[in-house]
What we know:
Blueprint: H1 9-18, H2 22-25, H3 27-45, H4 64-87, H5 89-114, H6 119-164, H7 169-177, H8 179-187, H9 190-223, H10 225-234, H11 241-279, H12 285-296, H13 302-314, H14 319-346, H15 353-396
Helix pairs in contact: 5-6, 5-9, 5-11, 6-7, 11-12, 11-14, 11-15, 12-13, 13-14
Amino acid sequence: MATFSGGEPGDRAGPAREGHHPLIAQPHTEDEGTVAEAEAEAAQLSTPARPLGEPGRRLDRKSPFFVGLLGAAGVGVAYVLAQAIVTAQHTLILIGLALFLAIGVEPAVSWLVRRRFPRGAAVSAVLLGLLVVVGGFFALAIPVVVEQATAFAHQAPRYLQTLQDRSSPLGQLNGRFGLQQHLQQLLSGGSGVLDAAVSAGKAVLGTLGDLLVVVVLTIYFTADLPRIRRTFYRLVPRSRRPRVILIGDEIFAKVGAYVLGNALISLIAGSVTFGWLLIFGVPYALLLAILVALLDLIPVIGTVVGGITVSLVALTVSWPVALATVGFFLVYRLLEDYLLVPRIIGKVVKVPALVTVVAVLLGGVLLGVVGALVAIPVAAAVLLILHEVTYPRLDRT
């Protein structure tokens, strides 16, 4: 037919073959050849000393893309870390408190280790001794505290009547400050009382759970503290490691001395308060003494709050007893600040008074009661680093 004239079948295939590109016609063959060349080069790079070859040239860290990518990644990581810290804040506080207590009991453990006790036996002896002392104290104190708390609940109506008696000390305070009105506002409404009772129950259960967590973590931290210490020092460059070990061990010594010394001072505060209240016949003596001992663990403000509370309870006896109790706490506070603290912990933890007040206030605002408890040793550690590292470096520049 005329339509197909002018060429053979082989000629019809000619134009198609002329437009054919070799990369499209043989893709697999070319890929295999390229990989084979890379494999041959890789075989030459591999040596017995360097089985995986020499590292390639480093990326250009000054390139705009790399700088921007690194900055964006840094912002993202910082945001994720901040969110994680905020989410786990409560747990992190418990972990920090347990580590703080473990460092606090470490001097007693080290003392037994120096007497050729095995580390495990020394830790067990110290923790068992603390458990016996604390458990025995509560075993003796809880029945009396429950008895006094029950007596206070029975005497509450009489105290409310005393508030209305203008001739009594509480009645005079009520007339001046409106104590009864504030109490009625607090206790008004059955649902409010029920909600308060439920909230108090949840708070007690939560506190017991946190206390159990802290106790368990303290045991583990105390038993494993040498390895934790070595791991921390391994994170420091080798050239700086000896100096960091000296400073770090000094900080650990300050924390340990503060914890044991603060506990001893609180025990003294509770004991002398109990004796004072017994002498003057102030009710709920043991309950108030335990409260003062616990509050005295908080530096600066603990004794003040305890003294005010005890003095208010002493008003139920008479004005002279209340005023004498106020004077007692003022004198005790002076003795504690200028006699007990310098002799027990002042030689190790040397923190100026202004720094102490500021540290306690900041610690209380940031972390509550736990922050106030650890504020002074943290301040001592910061001052040590400033005097040993920061100031000398600034003086040389």
